[in-house]
Amino acid sequence: MRRAGVLLLALLAGPAQAAWQWDAPLEVSTAVGAAVFPHVESANRQGIAVSGGTVGVAWEDNRSGAPRCYAAFKPAAAPAFAPEAALSAGECYEPAIAPLGGAGRFLAAWEEDGAVWARVLPGGKPLRLSAAAAVQATVATRGDQAYAAWAEQAGRFKRIVVAALAIDGDAVTVRAARPIEAAEPADEQAWPALAAVANGDVVAVWEDRRNKHTVPYGSRAPAGGLDFAPAARISDQKSGRVDGLGAGLGAMRPTLAPWGADGSAAVWLDKRDFLSGYDVYVAFDAGGRFGRNQRVQDSFGDNMSQWHAKVAARGDRLVAVWDDARDGTPDVWLSTWTGEGFGDNVAVPAAAGPGEQSDPLAALDETGALHVVWLDRGAEGTRVRYARAVWK
Amino acid sequence: MKTILLAAFMACVAATAAWADPPQGYPFVDYNAGLKAAKESGKPIFLYFGRYGCAWCDHTNKKTFSDAGLKALYSDNYVLVYVDAESGKRVTLPTGERITEAELGTRLNAFATPLFVYLTPQGEKIVQIPGFKTVQDFRDYDRYVRGGFYKKQTLLEFLGGKS
Fold first, then answer.
1. Is-above-0.90 flag for pTM?
2. By CA distance, what is B99's nearest residue in A?
3. Most buried residue among A131, A328, B43, B118 by CB atoms closer than 10 A?
4. Per the CB < 8 Å rule, is B86 touching A207?
């Protein structure tokens, strides 16, 4: 009888589904005030990274009276983030950060005084990466590989440039840098995202306006070089006029993460259903070609716009985060890949409820733990907040 | 040779007509310049929130903003500001916060383009109106804004009560 009871309990417990279990949230920035405006936007929404258990967060705010970039770190065993340090000396925007080997080492890149710079954190001297005026820096690392990308002026428009970097201690140097496309751009290219994928290739996606509307494009370079294949659209929507009007539907801010044996996953905001604002879409690349586009958010997110989408992946775990106001005010939402599609949308508990919680960043660490940063706008000012979750 | 030049010219015309930007001939300026000009002139701001390649923006430009009387009305009485819904160009809000034009769309919850936003000369929002609108619609919105009706009525109340 007792054995039957135990068996029944085991059967009842069996179907219980795993879910993200969240730690208490933490404050990241020490500067909070009605006139202090922090921003965590960057190309690939790359403002959080985890290196050997240490969490690094980079952002921009105007506490000094002008936009400056800052970074704060929390070692695995620390109960809170250490006070932040300035990344830059000049006017700075959209900092990105990626992990380097060893605990608590990072590669950061940012826009400062109209150019793109990089440095190793902590320590490390800034190195100017861009030759001409440039914006929207991002970084990607894997093992001893390190890359940066940005949008650099080339004639009338900007184009995407990728650099292979060498890291020696706390020094960063450029091994090679070249535009993805050698020809001058026919229209604006912007907001690059990079992934150093498992087989050593590097994949790039970006916003491209060559079709006279914004289309996410992508390309891949084989391991060891920057010989990118011809750029191809990752949206499966065609460009073209609608009843003789316009040039095509909207899309913006592609993000990218390595995924699978040699592939990547791109997530972006897409307006193909223009009656519901921007939706979150995903496409998977395997070997250099992005496949069918799939909508990420569930039907409870219909009839409203999604914003600030970001993809993060590690091992067999893939998540997308964004914000929308389906519950009345902006909250941070999360969906986890089930193997066949993205699962039910769940709110990040500390980034949901009354008030405005938005602009999520996300990273998965080597243990599979999820790290999320977001902005929390309240009457006293905007706070940069962080929470960690484990899947169980 | 003339045929080739003509074909090239027509291709350029077709290309420039293929996407939506501010309506031609209107003195649209960017957000920062517009806020500065509005403070100096005391004129309200008419903010056109468009998107590169937007079909409904194109439609509105061709069907509505082509009207000469509307062009004169809005050019004379408003500071005209154009914002690109997907742009990373930076704007400075009246609070002093610097954000991108795309982020301004998030703050306005710009669900669809075109989106038309009327602002006071100090940059405070009066009303925002999405989608295609007619010449008469824009004449009504002008009366609502410059007539000061927005201080006492919602736009719907105002439009419901108009003769």
1. yes
2. A39
3. B118
4. yes
